Amino acid sequence: VMPESLPLFPEGLPAAVRQSILVSPATKWNGAQVPFSTQSKSELVADYIRRFQQVTRGGLYVDGFAAPQRRNAPEAWSARRVLEVEPKRIRGFWLFDIDPGGIEMLRELKSLHHRSPISRKVRVFEGDFNKEVFHFLQAKELRRDTAVFALLDQRATECHWRTVELLARRRGRRTKIEIMYFCPTAWVHRMIKTRTKASSIEALDLWWGNSSWEALANLTQIETVRVLVNRFKSELGYKHVVPYPIPLRLNRRRISYHLIHASDHDEAPRLMAAAFNDRVNAQQHAGQISLAL
Fold first, then answer.
1. What is the mean pLDDT of residues 263-268?
2. pLDDT tier, 260 (very low <50, low <70, confident <90, very high otherwise)
3. CB 95 within 8 A of CB 122
4. Separation of CA 255 from chain center
5. CA-CA distance, 215 to 155, in Å (whole number)?
6. Rounded CA gap, 124 and 181, in Å?
7. What dihedral do alpha carbons 48, 50, 54, 59 form, nearest 10°?
8. Distance between CA 153 and CA 87 in Å, rounded?
9. Residue 254 CB coordination number (10 Å)
10. How confident is the model over 92-139, as pLDDT tens digits?
């Protein structure tokens, strides 16, 4: 439960965003229900990319955990949604995943979008993104004047902090690589308190970057998110860092993820706030529920 005395959003976030919380109706695909959080994340990512590319006039996109989280729900698949964004201005895609089944789906997706249009290239890499990220960082297309967007939609704690650091340090002429980092807010404290095996503790060390994750057990969800926001600012040097809540269900008290949006581009906060608000407004227009904070 999140205490009322602690605001969900940091200071400076537009009031219109604070007034609503992003919820997405559960949809069905091949008879299976798609969770609110999965649907909401993919919609928000694609809508933001649509806006992002209008400002940058193109760019590159890297997805470190790109296979669909729900294999029977391709409509809620972020990689697919982003590749289908119109107009098709993002010219380079690097899609990573460690799961063989997911890689097969990514290769099928590539077959539909590679060289369509002719200037677009889609690359698929099988393996741990934390180890394979150099395929992207060393790419010749990654020029100093190229806008780059990175999606780190980990299922739990798969994304090492070192990997986030590597992306953040790859600075262009004017801005860093823009990052959308999903923190599994609903599960972090449980994982911290229940993991006792040496391998599990090592995994948390890699995720957080050191052993100080133990202190998170004494924090609320909001405080944990604030720590992450501060790390993106102080350790990684991002100018704009804003968290957005993604609820598990139509219940404002249970947040499944927080999207940490980190960018140096001065237009980025406005674009993300607009994308977030548009998702809320679209759901309201369709007769869905939006809960006031």
1. 95
2. very high
3. yes
4. 15
5. 22
6. 20
7. 90
8. 24
9. 15
10. 999 999 999 999 999 999 999 999 999 999 999 999 999 999 999 999
Q: Is the pLDDT of residue 237 over 90?
A: yes
Domains with residue ranges and CATH for the chain: 15-285 (3.40.50.150)
Query: Residue 34: what are its φ and ψ, rounded to 5°?
Result: -90, 125
Which pLDDT score, from 0 to 100, does residue 141 have? 92
Nearest to 267, CA basis, from 161, 147, 143, 114: 147
Burial of 25 (0-12, 13-18, 19+ CB in 10 A): middle
Kindly tell me the sign of the dihedral angle through the C-alpha atoms of 203, 209, 211, 215.
negative
Task: Tell me how far apart the alpha carbons of residues 185 and 1 are, in angstroms, rounded to a whole number.
Answer: 12
Tokens found for residue 29: 């695909």
Q: Report the DSSP pairing between strands 59-63 and 32-34.
A: unpaired
Please say if the pLDDT value at position 179 is more than 60: yes
Q: Closest Cα partner for 225 from 266, 178, 185?
A: 185
What are the φ/ψ torsions at residue 104 (nearest 5 degrees)? Answer: -60, -40
CA distances (Å), 37 to each of 63, 145, 163, 227, in order? 18, 34, 24, 22
Helix (H) or strand (E) holding 258: strand 255-263
Strand, coil or helix: 92: strand
SS3 of 117, please?
coil
How confident is the model over 64-73, as pLDDT tens digits?
Answer: 999 998 877 7
Maximum distance among all Cα pairs of the chain, rounded to whole angstroms: 53
SS3 at position 100: helix
Q: What is the CA radius of gyration of the chain?
A: 18
- Global pTM? 0.86
